[in-house]
Specification:
The chain is of the alpha/beta class. It is globular and about 40 Å long. The model has no long low-confidence stretch (mean pLDDT about 95). It has seven helices and five strands, in the order βααβααβααβαβ. Helix 1 packs across helix 2, helix 1 packs across helix 3 and helix 5 packs across helix 6.
Length: about 140
C-alpha cells in the first residue's frame, strides 16, 4: 500500500470548494478512506488546518458551522499524526533556516525524510524546496 506524508495544503482542498487540484486531493482522501493509501503528518497539521479554516470563515469562503463540522470529521480520517519533540523542532528549524522555509513546512519535509515516505503537497514552494531532501510530489502530478 502506498504511504505518503501530506501537508495542510492537501487537507484544505478536501474542505474548501473550488481549490486548484481539488479533484486530485479528494482522490487521495478517498484512497485513504478506502484503505488504498496510508497518510501521515506531523501533529501541527491540526493547527494549520484549523487556522486555514478560521481564515476561510473570516473571508466568507465557508460557514463557521461547516468549518467546525469539517474539523470534527477530520478527527475520524485515517491520518497518522506524530507529536513533535523539541529535537524534531530543532531539526525542522535547521532545515527551515537552510532553505528559507517556515519551520511548519520544514516539519513536513523532516517527517517525510524520517519515515522514508514521499511528501505530497499543493504548495509550490514546499514542493521545490523539499526536493533535495526527500521525494516530493506535487498533487497536480498525483
Amino acid at each position: 500500500m502506498p504511504r505518503y506524508v501530506v501537508d495542510a495544503s492537501i487537507v484544505a482542498k478536501w474542505i474548501l470548494p473550488g481549490e486548484p487540484y481539488e479533484e486530485k486531493s479528494i482522490r487521495l482522501k478517498n484512497d485513504s478512506i478506502n484503505g488504498v493509501a496510508d497518510l501521515h503528518s506531523p501533529g501541527i497539521i491540526r493547527y494549520e488546518v484549523g487556522n486555514l479554516l478560521w481564515k476561510a470563515v473570516k473571508a466568507n469562503r465557508i460557514a463557521d458551522a461547516d468549518a467546525r463540522e469539517a474539523l470534527s470529521l477530520l478527527g475520524s480520517m485515517r491520518i497518522a499524526t506524530y507529536d513533535l519533540e523539541w529535537r524534531d523542532i530543532s531539526e525542522s528549524f535547521s532545515l527551515a533556516s537552510a532553505v528559507d522555509l517556515t519551520v511548519y513546512d520544514a516539519a513536513y519535509i523532516r517527517l517525510s525524510k524520517e519515515l522514508r515516505m514521499p511528501l505530497i503537497t499543493a504548495d509550490d514552494q514546499l514542493y521545490e524546496k523539499g526536493k533535495p531532501f526527500t521525494r516530493t510530489i506535487h498533487v497536480r502530478d498525483f
